[in-house]
Amino acid sequence: MSNLERDPQEAPCGGLADVATEPVNELLIGRDVVLGGTRGMKVTRTLPNRDIRMVGAWCFVDHYGPEKATMRVPPHPHTGLQTVSWLLAGEVTHRDSVGSEQVVRPGQLNLMTAGRGISHSEHSPAAVELHGVQLWVALPAAARGIAPAFEHHPSLPVLTSPGVRVTVIMGELGGATSPATVHTPLVGAEVVLDAGAEVVLPLRPGFEYAALALSGSVRVDGTDLAPGPLLYLGSGRSELSLAAGPGGRVLLLGGEPFEEEIVMWWNFVGRSHEEIVRFRREWMAGSAFGAAPGTDDPFGVVPGTDDPALPAPELPTTPLKARGRHR
């Protein structure tokens, strides 16, 4: 799933200004976004947030379901980021302009690296129960111009203790390393706790962290967390305690604070308003809308779908420059 808002706002992100250099417990309330019109699927978006834009290189978090719904996201573009698709229920078929076609199911990872430009679509079977998260990772300057790529990881490393199962989706945690490609030091992990279970996770003091409850209820560092808000945990931690009452599932995100300043708009990550303008122009003038394929078309065409490509919204009238996060 991607950003289908018809009036997206530019979001300046990144930089080290006001990154919490000590442990904190800040609940960040998300906003409801309906994808695909008034009858579309509702998601709760907690990043970017008005109080904090990023957690490490993680710059976008949508949590959806559980609900019976049909995901039908037509071909659309991305630049300068990785999309991380993680399901708890249902299945989604990914297709992209580099020729990938892959169904992702619960416990599997679909990872798309946009680099200098890619387009893709996402479809689910009609009216299945869907529950999952869609995440974006901002690419650093050294990687944002690389060729687009796609990875599917049907199995991932798992850490276990009594009543606890931790799947390392991205990066490294507790000595277990995901096979997924990363371009900055980060971690993404799903923690499942049975009723009454407790666990202490090892953390890196130089990372900043956040936790998102996906189901049930879990006490994270003394804060009761249920689905909805994102709990920002700051940095300076060497461990994190989690305890479940009736049981629950939590997504842990972390990484080195992202030093570079970026601009996010619609499905693009760039470094300036002018760059976003160029990305939009190239998408609207590209082969997805009938132009002959050429070197100035970085996005290409998504095969295997009858859905027309998604036109980009109009740009905001006031240019914004990249600057640090707000907290």
From TrEMBL:
Residues 190-286 form the Pirin C-terminal domain. Residues 295-327 are annotated as: Disordered. CDD domains: cupin_pirin_C, cupin_pirin_N. Residues 41-137 form the Pirin N-terminal domain. Belongs to the pirin family. This is Pirin family protein. The lineage of its organism: Bacteria, Bacillati, Actinomycetota, Actinomycetes, Streptosporangiales.
